[in-house]
Amino acid sequence: MSGVSVTKGADDAVPAAGDLVVLSNVNKHFGALHVLQDIDLTITRGEVVVVIGPSGSGKSTLCRAVNRLETIDSGDITIDGKPLPQEGKELARLRADVGMVFQSFNLFAHKTVLENVTLGQVKVRKMDKKAATEKARALLDRVGVAEQADKYPAQLSGGQQQRVAIARALAMDPKVMLFDEPTSALDPEMINEVLEVMQQLAREGMTMVVVTHEMGFARSAANRVVFMADGKIVEEATPEEFFSNPRSDRAKDFLSKILHH
Ligand SMILES: Nc1ncnc2c1ncn2[C@@H]1O[C@H](COP(=O)(O)OP(=O)(O)O)[C@@H](O)[C@H]1O
Ligand SMILES: [Mg+2]
After folding, report:
1. Overall domain count for the chain
2. Strands 224-229 and 232-237
3. Cβ proximity of 218 and 179 under 8 Å
């Protein structure tokens, strides 16, 4: 699908103007494990969606499928009305359009911070080196690590590394940013510095999907909470509704566990 209707009459196959990421009836198995079960999820432009749920419920697989780090068995995923490309340059561009921030930072260890944020712009976006470097410095400044530009990732704290990872994704001018438990590997005193950068992005209108257990972030930044359990989307609601009045027993049980520790 190209964003233009080709199947006249099938109106529900045409993405609405504001839809950016659309998953329709997505299924995925790992062997016998049905890890994504009939997932329907639409993320509109500028929306911040927090995905929560117990460990093993399929949250990471969902994010990875949107970035095509995992293939799906059936269903459709479109970004901006276009199906996910299979391979090659198109796939590299998709990965640039869909910025991904992982729990484990995933910076290139043998490149400096500045090189980490410059590389993709030159290789994938074909920017000239000078412009890419200037943009990288501006982004490093924006996430508060400008002074670290010439260091290697291992010389930075976890919170600093994660902010570099965010800058690296932003350097590609992504259409949407996916965060998969971006603060879970951090020491407690570094969590806020990363959440603040994410809050800022949300305020600026970035479309974001955030897997997190940080309920404060969900309450203050999310437009919508999606609750997953056992490979299914069990509930979707505003943070207000979800936290004050979860409907399913699974969500009630999950919230009682994470809110009372
Ligand atoms: N590459 C894989 N091969 C086999 N099983 C996997 C793989 N990745 C994830 N799983 C399993 O799929 C389920 C969902 O995993 P995941 O998406 O990581 O859940 P979550 O992020 O919600 O904790 C888990 O049971 C996990 O063990
Ligand atoms: Mg996970």
Report:
1. 1
2. antiparallel
3. no
Q: What is the pLDDT of residues 142-166, one digit of tens each?
A: 999 999 999 999 999 999 999 999 9
3-class DSSP state of 144: coil
- Contact between 43 and 49 under an 8 Å Cβ cutoff? The reply is yes
| Ligand 1 pocket mutation, candidates 28, 29, 30, 227, criterion most atoms within 8 A of CB | 30
- CA dihedral of residues 205, 209, 212, 217 (deg, nearest 10): 20
- CA–CA–CA angle 212, 218, 220 (5° rounding): 145
Helix (H, G, I), strand (E, B) or coil at 39: strand
Residue 5 CB: number of other CB atoms within 10 A? Answer: 13
pLDDT digits (tens, 9 = 90+) for 204-221: 999 999 999 999 999 999
In a domain, 114, yes or no: no
Q: How is 200-259 classified by DSSP, letter by letter?
A: HHHHTT-EEEEE---HHHHHHH-SEEEEEETTEEEEEE-HHHHHH---SHHHHHHHHHHH
State the pTM of this model: 0.91
Whether 87 is covered by a domain: the verdict is yes
Has residue 46 been placed in a domain? yes
Whose alpha carbon is nearest atom 11 of ligand 1? 56
- Which CATH number goes with the domain that contains 189? 3.40.50.300
